[in-house]
Design brief:
This protein is of the alpha/beta class. It has 13 helices and 26 strands. A six-stranded mixed sheet has the order 5-2-1-9-22-21, covered by helices on one side. Bound molecules: flavin-adenine dinucleotide.
Length: 436
């Protein structure tokens, strides 16, 4: 009898966790992702602010699978899932039939219907988002260099929406970029005097799920970095050169970074169950889909309830990774004729970095850390989570270099024309090959 076919859709923390746990299990695995790389989302803001490079935040899927003899990878976009036919439907590729399916497609940005957000906000959830934001920041600074009158039009006002970890980390890093790097890159511009980063949060506090002590620390640390924190201020409209707050106030800006929320991946609908809390799929305690023991849903797309506490778990990389490994273990059990086991999350703490030498860490139980110790813990955890040895060492070297020198080295930008020419050449080559 042939080995059972496990199809994993989504090569994020969850999908990779499943695959790695199944390394030595007698199954045939097919991993599918629309990108040929895994994205390390927690460091996207460092890519956008020139601190790290794309190849330190993304890791080639195929390379990660060199030691995974029982798995194949396809770079393909999933368009639908047919649970009755046990098939995954793909763009430009034949459907793939499974014995076990793992859905780990993650989440997508949620603009909550904010007017103009789709067109003019800069979300920060994918590699593409981070690269677009990075290019935009560089373009704005170059435009101001050529035409300083743009300063009066708000070009040096960099706005961030969302006081969660993404917004807090991005606001801090943006301010450091402006005041430690851009001020030297553009000595002719009044960056230190006039550039400002403004963080808007609709609620009364930053870092909602953290302890009040850590929330206060985060606000103070941001203010020390010259970030203006505006609490209880929601954004209701975005245009290319301004944002309108819910109070009616208009703020001139050419940059609005959106870190205000996510919703489950739209393909969650194809699973045909009632979606809850931002479109997430509620799963059984063993992480399978209700009534479909051969289908598992993990990571940000799922609403996972901790079997121990009976509480829903947050959309975090650590939850996705542990849940993914648990699904791998459960598939191994099913293949071996054993029953599945419920998932219990091991909370190792949550953290957010606010700038160099400033971070907050909320440990399980009552413990917490701030300042340098917390920042070192943040650094250690993120280095440990990075995928390959090569990436780990180059990231450590780059971080170390940036910290020692207060410099950032990733500011080379291709122009739009360069990108267009590269895409056209590649398309031409593909069509020529197709005709041969
Ligand atoms: C800016 C940011 C900062 C964060 N910081 C932290 C942090 O510090 N600590 C922490 O624990 N968590 C953090 N998180 C959360 C963490 O990154 C997520 O919880 C985690 O990535 C979820 O993993 P996942 O596998 O469910 O989804 P993802 O990692 O999003 O993976 C989903 C995969 O599915 C693929 N995919 C999507 N659609 C398709 C399709 N149609 N066809 C094929 N493939 C598809 C995607 O390309 C992607 O590779 C952060 C998130 C963001 C956005």
């Amino acid at each position: 009898m042939s080995e059972p076919h496990v199809v994993i859709v989504g090569g994020g923390f969850a999908g990779l966790g499943v695959m790695q746990k199944l390394t030595d299990v007698p199954v045939k695995i097919t991993l599918i992702d629309q990108n040929n790389y895994h994205t390390f989302q927690p460091l996207l803001y460092q890519l956008a602010t020139n601190e790290l490079d794309a190849n330190q935040v993304g890791f080639p899927m195929r390379e990660m699978m060199h030691r995974q003899d029982n798995a194949l990878f396809h770079q393909a976009r999933v368009t639908d899932i047919d649970l009755d036919k046990k098939a995954v439907l793909l763009e430009n590729m034949e459907p793939i039939v499974y014995d076990y399916l793992v859905v780990g497609l993650g989440a997508v940005v949620n603009f909550y219907g904010t007017k103009g957000a789709e067109d003019y906000a800069y979300p920060l959830y994918t590699m593409r988002d981070a690269l677009l934001l990075k290019a935009h920041i560089n373009r704005v600074l170059e435009a101001v260099d050529k035409n300083p009158a743009l300063i009066d039009e708000g070009a040096l006002n960099f706005c961030v929406v969302g006081g969660g970890p993404t917004g807090v980390e991005t606001a801090g890093a943006l301010s450091e970029l402006l005041h430690a790097v851009a001020d030297k890159d553009y000595p002719n511009l009044p960056i230190n005097e006039q550039a400002q980063v403004i963080l808007f949060e609709a609620g009364p506090k930053l870092l909602g799920p953290f302890k009040p002590k850590l929330q206060k620390y985060a606000k103070k640390a941001l203010e020390k970095l010259d970030v203006t924190v505006r609490l209880e201020e929601g954004v209701s409209e975005i245009t290319p050169t301004s944002i309108t707050l819910r109070s009616g106030e208009v703020v001139k800006t050419h940059t609005l970074v959106w870190g205000a929320g996510v919703q489950a991946h739209p393909l969650a609908k194809s699973l045909g169950v009632e979606q809850v809390r931002g479109g997430r799929i509620p799963v059984e305690l063993d992480l399978s889909l209700n009534g479909r023991p051969e289908v598992f849903v993990v990571g940000d797309i799922a609403l996972i309830t901790d079997a121990k506490t009976k509480k829903p778990l947050p959309q975090l990389g650590s939850v996705a990774q542990q849940a993914g490994r648990h699904v791998g273990k459960n598939i191994e059990r099913l293949v071996g004729g054993k029953p599945t086991e419920p998932f219990e999350y091991l909370d190792k703490g949550t953290m957010a970095a606010i700038g160099r030498g400033a971070a907050v860490v909320q440990m399980p139980g009552h413990g917490s850390m701030t300042g340098h110790a917390a920042w070192l813990a943040w650094l250690g955890v993120h280095v440990a989570l990075l995928a390959g040895g090569e990436e780990k060492s180059s990231t450590i070297v780059d971080w170390g270099w940036n910290i020692l020198t207060q410099k950032r080295g990733k500011r080379i930008m291709l122009t739009d024309e360069d990108f267009e020419a590269a895409i056209k050449t590649s398309e031409k080559r593909e069509s020529t090959q197709g005709n041969e």
